[in-house]
Design goal:
Blueprint (H helix, E strand, L loop, with lengths): L2 E4 L2 E7 L1 H18 L6 E4 L5 H8 L7 E2 L3 E6 L6 E6 L9 E9 L3 H11 L5 E9 L12 E5 L5 E2 L15 E4 L1
Parallel strand pairs: 3-4, 3-7, 7-8, 8-9
Antiparallel strand pairs: 1-2, 2-11, 5-6, 10-11
The structure holds inosinic acid (IMP) and magnesium ion (MG).
The site of magnesium ion has 4 residues, from strand 7.
Length: about 180
């Protein structure tokens, strides 16, 4: 199995490119079917979803728009603690069907917050499309409409996912060994 050394850690390929791409095409076909006659706005979440979004969007055949968003965390007032805000929402999402595109859903907390925040902008609908899901790690209920693969509760990198900022640029996905 092909190994990858990133800083102090060693990883091995766990999902090869071909297996992943097959699932990306399947998910795209599901979206094309479900959104026929609609014009969805895809909202990929930076940084992790950039590579999945690029592959997914190239398989989308319904008319669509894309706007990358990011969840920014910062310390608020003493009373409110950490505030997380969706930034980069360049398009008005009011009355539009939106599809959030994520790299991975782990505890689900990020996605739950994202959904709640976007809901306040009154989109016509919100769907969640995540490349990967760790079902055993979910801490909150998140409606996941589209997913490529469920994976075990292990730390992974590649295909957009990083270890300390590195290894986002690989075609395969690697698991910590
Ligand atoms: P959650 O809020 O716990 O669902 O985590 C979501 C974010 O944590 C993802 O969007 C990733 O950026 C990051 N993350 C979760 N699991 C992994 C992993 O195995 N490798 C790298 N990043 C991860
Ligand atoms: Mg992410």
């Amino acid at each position: 199995m092909e190994k990858l050394q990133v800083k102090d850690k060693t990883f091995a390929v766990s999902i090869p490119e071909a297996e992943l791409q097959k699932e990306v095409r399947r998910v795209a076909a599901e979206i094309n079917r479900d959104y026929a006659g609609q014009e969805p706005l895809f909202l990929p979440v930076l940084n992790g979803a950039f590579m999945f979004a690029a592959d997914l969007l190239r398989e989308i055949t319904v008319p669509c728009e894309v706007s990358f968003i990011k969840l920014a965390s910062y310390q608020g007032t003493q009373t409110t603690g950490t505030i997380r805000e969706v930034i980069g929402l360049a398009k008005d999402i009011t009355n539009r069907p939106v599809i959030i595109v994520e790299d991975i859903i782990d505890s689900g907390l990020t996605m739950a917050h994202m959904i709640e925040t976007l809901q306040a902008h009154n989109p016509a609908s919100i769907a969640v499309c995540s490349c990967l899901v760790k079902p055993a790690a979910l801490k909150v209920h998140v409606p996941i409409d589209y997913r490529c693969l469920d994976i075990p509760n292990d730390f992974i990198i590649g295909y957009g996912l990083d270890y300390d900022g590195f290894a986002r640029n690989t075609r395969d996905i690697y698991t910590l060994v």
